[in-house]
Amino acid sequence: MLHVPETRVPRDxxxxxxxxxxxxWAAARKNGVSVGEEMTYPAPPQVLLPVMNxxxxxxxxxxxxxxxRGLDETIQRFQVPYPGRFVVFTEPSWERSNxxxxxxxxxxxxxxxxxxxxxxxxxxxxxxxxxxxxxTAGPLVKIDDPRFDPMWETCGALNMPVAIHVxxxxxxxxPIDRFNExxxxxxxxxxxxxxxxxxxxxxxxxxARNHVFARHPKTSFITLHVGNxxxxxxxxxxxxxxxxxxxxxxxxxxxxLGRQPRNAREFFDKYQDRILFGxxxxxxxxxxxQQVFGGDLYEIYFRFLETEGEYxxxxxxxxxxxxxxxxxxxGLPEGILKNVYYENASRLLGLKES
Length: 354
Ligand SMILES: [Zn+2]
Prior knowledge:
Blueprint: E1 16-21, E2 25-30, E3 33-40, H1 45-55, E4 57-62, H2 68-79, E5 86-90, H3 102-116, E6 120-123, H4 126-129, H5 149-157, E7 162-164, H6 183-188, H7 202-215, E8 221-223, H8 224-228, H9 233-242, E9 246-249, H10 254-257, H11 261-270, E10 275-276, H12 295-306, H13 334-349
Parallel strand pairs: 1-4, 4-5, 5-6, 6-7, 7-8, 8-9, 9-10
Antiparallel strand pairs: 2-3
The structure holds zinc ion.
């Protein structure tokens, strides 16, 4: 029942790189682990480009570009015909991760992907929460397992940033009951809960991730979803201070940032060179209403970042999907907006100035 002015931002002030989108997926998954090289493509570039042009999105970075022949196909569909508009990342071959030759094989595959045109490597939360010693069965593989060291090192040597998702919101590690602030979301997706069973705690997962950052200082890590700890910006700040090779991305976490606007504004002031714009956009992604690709989604992000204003919906959905609250805005100055929208990502990806 709050009556406050609404500031629409139909087009943002500066060109944007959306560093976190999913324009392709592995066609097959088993127990949360991608298997095979075949890909599916929810929407072709022709559907995406009109929205991008209208909203001033210079480039979309498709993180889940796949592996092997699947990666080659993704690059052929997006990056080759539309250079500068679509950027493709590759992924690890999780299926091979328990082979004796895996460490070197994976390093070589990263180098091959680079030659094929991939700009970076994407790590889904598969690592830490799904991948097991027998790939789909057995004990969980640790994020800092040394078998991945050659992979991280190769990414650093080839200037390929690693976009990494580790763990999930704190609430996903708590019982699904009336005390859980994401009760509705977890009730809709009980499989997103990592409470109990053999899952490590949120803190253990982030600690293992930090070991990787410390061990590979020449590799740049883009920690998705505000370092996967948007509820605790003090902790994210501490990590950023400790690891100069760490960056953060905003995707699907403006619900968290916008309910602590003063903390968030301070965070943007301090780390404006290390924050990247991203939405986690999924074309037709009805399973994740806060991420459905389209003009409405971008307008919400622009309004949150650019305007002064009050309490509004953080997702293009009738019911707030990540918890029943609304958000406040940041009203960032132009210098910070330019960095977050474009400059930081462009530098990390090594894109040529156009
Ligand atoms: Zn994502």
